[in-house]
Amino acid sequence: MYPNMTEERIDARPESQADNMKARKAAIEAFLANVDAKAALAAVKADDVDSVIAAAQAGATIAEIRNALGTAEVDEIKSIAAHRWSERFEALRETTENFKAKTGDNVKIFLANMGSIPQHKARADFTTGFLQVGAFQVLGNNGFKTVDEAAQAAKESGADAVVICSTDATYPEIIPALAPKLHEALPNATVFLAGAAPKDLLETYNAAGIDEYIHVKANCYKILQTLQQKKGMIA
Hints:
This protein has helices at 17-32, 38-42, 49-57, 62-69, 87-103, 117-132, 147-157, 171-185, 199-208, 220-231; strands at residues 108-113, 137-139, 161-165, 190-194, 212-214. It is an alpha/beta fold and 235 residues long. It folds into two domains: 18-69, no CATH class; 87-231, Cobalamin-binding domain (Rossmann fold, 3-Layer(aba) Sandwich), CATH 3.40.50. It has a five-stranded parallel beta sheet, with helices on both faces. Strand 3, helix 8 and strand 4 (190-194) form a beta-alpha-beta unit. Helix 5 (87-103) packs parallel to helix 10. The longest helix has 17 residues, at 87-103. The two termini are 25 Å apart.
C-alpha cells in the first residue's frame, strides 16, 4: 500500500563477485595466520558439544571443525536463494513501467465515486493505493450524484477497469443501477466494487455485473497481474 508514484530508480551499484571473493579470502588467510587452534581441534569429539565450542572459541574455522569431526565430505550442499517479501510486487510495477515506456500506454482505472466526498473518500483512497502498487493510472474525481453521470464519465475515460466506491449502506441501491450501465459504457472493462460484499448480497451484486472486489482481504497480487494480462503487458 501507499506506493510512491514519483520515485525514480536508483543506479545499480557496480559489484564484482570475483573481487569480493578475493578480498574475503585474503581476510580469512590473514585471520588464520594469527590463530593456533591445533590443540583445540585435536580435542574435538562428535559427542562433546563443549569441545566443538572450545575449538570455535580458539579460532578454528567451520571447515576445520568439520574435518576434525569427519563430516567434511558431503554429497551436495544446496544454496538458499535470498528473496525479499516485496520482490514479486516490485516485478509487477517494473512490468507496468516497462510497458508504459515502450507503448506510452498504461492500465487505466476509473473511480466511479458515488455521492459526496465523505461518502466515497475512504474507499477511493484505499482503492487508489491498492492499484498503484502496480503503477497503474488511477482516474479520480470528487463524486457523482447520479449513476448516469458516473457511467457517462466512465465511458469518456476509456478506462480498462472501473471501481465503484461508496458505502455499504448505499451499495444495495447503487450497484443494480450502475454496474450494468458501466458494462454497457465500457464493454471490455472489468467492474470492481470497493469493499467486500455481505454474504446475503454477494449473488445480487455479481448478477448486477460486479466482476471482482477490492478490500483488505483481496488478493492484491492476483488482481494486479490479471489486469496486466488483460492489457497485454504479460502473456
